[in-house]
Amino acid sequence: MSKVIISVAVTGAIHTPSMSDYLPITPQEIAEQSIAAAEAGAAIIHLHARDPNDGRPTPDPKVFMQFLPVIKQSTDAVINITTGGGLGMSVDERLAAPLQAKPEMCSLNMGSMNFNISGSAARIKNFKYEWERPYLEGTTDFIFRNTFKDIEQIVERLGKGHGTRFEFECYDVGHLYNLAHMLDRKVVEPPLFTQTIFGILGGVGAEPRNLLFMKETADRLFGKDYVWSVLAAGRNQMPFTTMAGMLGGNVRVGLEDSLWLGKGVQAKSNAEQVAKIRRILEELSLEIATPAEARQILALKGGDKVGF
């Protein structure tokens, strides 16, 4: 890669309002933080929606439509909408907003998995909202469903139906093989934007050797047919994205993945994290891709062809 694509995951569905006062909740907050992150250097903005009343994840297209047009009008960044949604949402619920918005890009998880974030509950003394504790603690008995049928349905309805391309989220080495299976069967087409994810309990651990192994496996399976990116949860965010940049990869930061800017210091915004990784990469003599360059690298349809 000649230039590094920075993605930013603005709010997600993992962290809850009690974990950070800086987590964007309302459509206005999500829009403002997205725009600021783009101005800081993010070429791709990955988006979830939250109920503005209590911050719980929501699949409601009406909520998405309160911030998607605002972001589009204020920045040229690629807008990437989740198909993972929030814990416990059905596939139809997860697809509701993307099918209406018809974005350039959506995330697509490449396998069913245990997804345990219950440890976060023990670190919170006072919850702002009643839904937070059971939402977190319930993940000891939660399977994040992404069957082969689900994956093919999402590709068919969004990809082939609306020209949306995907950020293929791979939480473990088996997910890379699932993606290779889809490529072999021509369900998906290159270039594959492959996001390798580290540090989620239920997926591959955040160890440097695992990052190298995931890259070596992807290189072997996809050759020149893929574009590699890395994200890591929590305190591993900056070390792993820095390592990815040094190895020729792309990076994802944002408050979905980590609430921290450094040891003991919470990030006050997504833009702070984008600015930090941009500074690190540029000090390593790496160039940052613009949204237009990201579109060219990933063969996207263009912001003028979306539904918002």
Automatic annotation (TrEMBL):
| Molecular-function GO terms, alphabetical | 3-keto-5-aminohexanoate cleavage activity; metal ion binding
- What does the record give as cofactor? Zn(2+)
Q: Which domain of life is it from?
A: Bacteria
Q: Which InterPro entries match?
A: Aldolase_TIM, BKACE
Keyword annotations from UniProtKB, A to Z: Metal-binding, Transferase, Zinc
Q: Which Pfam families match?
A: BKACE (PF05853)
Name it: Uncharacterized conserved protein, DUF849 family
